[in-house]
Amino acid sequence: MTKGQETKQEIVRKAAPLFNQKGYAGTSLSDLMDATGLQKGGIYRHFSGKEELATEAFDYSWQKAVTGRLEGVENLPDSVDRLKKMVDNFIDMRAGLVPGGCPLMNTAIEADDGNTVLRNRARKALQGWITRLSRIAVDGIHKHEIDTRIKPRKIVGMDHRQPGGSLVDQPAPKR
Description:
Helix content is 70%, strand content 0%. The chain has helices at 3-26, 29-36, 40-44, 50-69, 79-93, 103-111, 116-142, 152-160, 165-169.
């Protein structure tokens, strides 16, 4: 990894909590400079603009959240236990994974106002999460661990209807 790539990763790592706590609109260049210790040129040498940095910061935060929520899940052979472990991880780790809470929820709520790049990134993250949960449910149905009358999308649909899920499924309001 080059020094430039290391610097870019470090900027993302330090900017991610700011964007997650303050949002895209609430995070100023001054905030980013304070957090990174770099001047404007030192930050934007690595990014085309604030939106690109915010998008990479979301990806970084979301990956941290997903990694934490999946901790210990793959070691469990039973699909129901895997789903329960994911819920337990979500509850037990929700405050400690990423400062400011769930990056998907935070980004979806803020991006609902019209930032299409971040809204699309949040939508993609939500769809990936739903797909992951659905695959576990399908696996459980095939192994007869989950009743065959259960529809996998219905199991994960409870999460999908939580605030944030419905927001990323809606188009941006017309202005």
